[in-house]
Design goal:
Layout: E1 11-13, E2 18-22, E3 30-34, E4 46-48, E5 54-61, E6 76-84, E7 90-100, E8 113-118, E9 125-126, E10 131-140, E11 150-159, E12 165-170
Antiparallel strand pairs: 1-4, 2-3, 5-6, 6-10, 7-9, 7-11, 8-10, 11-12
Length: 171
């Protein structure tokens, strides 16, 4: 049997079953067994959770200003906090930083910045209701566009229970 839960409620789901059949030797004899009234039945339960839902909480850089050509040991550090507002665990499948000339223009500065590495030990999952932080080391090209730059983070993942996709992009 397949049971599909389609409601909005969460919590423990317990399924009661009633089986009805007839005696193979006496088809007038009806046989019924119900887990609802049978105290010898061993029950199993299923925890119903809200789906994983990623939300980029904030993107921070340790520096207020950078210079063209800033790289190596002088690279900028960017941290991103992501929260799973659902109850089910989320498995992170992609994480991306995008550098924009301004939040309103949406024009990416693809030739100005590049992530040279992510810090080791980045989380691959976020438990339901929890937050995790990712750290990136970013270099500035010699020909980087000057002026204010908006750093946007995009995180995608899957709900560990259902495999459904969840994505959030925030500056």
């Amino acid at each position: 049997y397949t049971v599909t839960q389609t409601g909005d409620s969460t919590g423990t789901l317990q399924i009661y079953v009633t089986l009805t059949g007839y005696d193979v030797y006496d088809t007038t004899r009806r046989l019924t067994r119900s887990t609802l009234t049978d105290d010898t039945t061993t029950y199993d339960t299923v925890l119903v959770q809200t789906k994983a839902n990623l939300s980029v909480i904030h993107v921070n850089t340790a520096l207020d200003s950078v210079s063209r050509g800033q790289s190596g040991k002088d690279s900028a550090t960017v941290t991103v906090e992501v929260r799973n507002t659902g109850e089910a665990e989320a498995t992170i499948t992609t994480d991306t930083l995008t550098f924009l000339k301004s939040a309103s223009s949406g024009a990416a500065l693809t030739d100005s910045f590049f992530v040279i590495r992510k810090s080791s030990g980045q989380p691959s999952k976020i438990a339901g209701g929890a937050s995790e932080t990712w750290t990136y080391v970013v270099s500035v090209n010699d020909s980087a566009t000057t002026g204010t730059t908006v750093i946007e983070a995009t995180f995608s993942g899957t709900d560990t229970n259902s495999g459904l996709t969840t994505t959030d992009t925030r500056a």
